[in-house]
Specification:
This protein is mainly α. It has helices spanning 6-21, 46-57, 60-68, 76-81, 83-91, 93-98, 104-114, 125-133, 135-143, 151-156, 158-166, 168-174.
């Protein structure tokens, strides 16, 4: 018979919840729902989201791994190999029980780092819509977020350029500011 310590049992329960429940992280106060579905769900606590944001701010390599492979947050072996993530998830049980990880969450965080000014996460809706229609654009930005500011990339992806220019808040933070004209 296998005997586990209280900490071992808690770890097993956490890893089971991760692998069975599948987490999907939300943006701001959006309702919980699996990617690609509309519908109802409970809102993720903004405090939990901020705490996870701070955690990722201090773990950029881990964030890069999760951005490239968001499903890793649900991989028990990955969580076990990353002791700090494991510890974070253990000390934040609401993340396990209430948070559903939207894979776009990590791309949005990376794109926010490319912005030349703060931008509310709610302003990313046009980009999320574009990414559903153009998954290759999302994949390119997932791999190299800095491309959102690259004029050549924007020229090769006019649909992205159109979304940026069609939404002043996105244009303001991602498009280059034209130099002032001297007349």
């Amino acid at each position: 018979m296998l005997r586990l310590s209280r900490a071992g049992l808690a770890s097993c329960l956490l890893l089971t919840a991760l692998t069975q429940g599948g987490l999907f992280l939300l943006q701001a106060d959006e309702p919980a729902r699996p990617p690609g579905t509309a519908g109802s769900g409970s809102a993720v606590s903004p405090a939990v989201r901020r705490e996870f944001d701070r955690f990722l701010d201090h773990h950029p390599l881990l964030e890069d791994q999760l951005r490239l492979q968001p499903q890793l947050i649900s991989d028990a072996a990955f969580v076990t190999r990353n002791a700090e993530l494991h510890d974070f998830l253990q000390t934040n049980p609401t993340l396990v029980s209430n948070l559903r990880v939207d894979p776009g969450y990590y791309v949005n965080r990376a794109l926010l780092r490319q912005a030349n000014a703060p931008l509310p996460v709610t302003e990313f809706a046009p980009l999320r819509d574009l990414f559903q229609q153009q998954p290759r654009v999302e994949l390119a930005l997932k791999i190299r977020p800095e491309l959102i500011r690259d004029p050549r990339f924007l020229a090769m992806h006019p649909e992205l350029h159109d979304v940026l220019t069609g939404h002043p808040s996105l244009a303001r933070v991602f498009l280059p500011v034209p130099p002032p004209s001297h007349k």
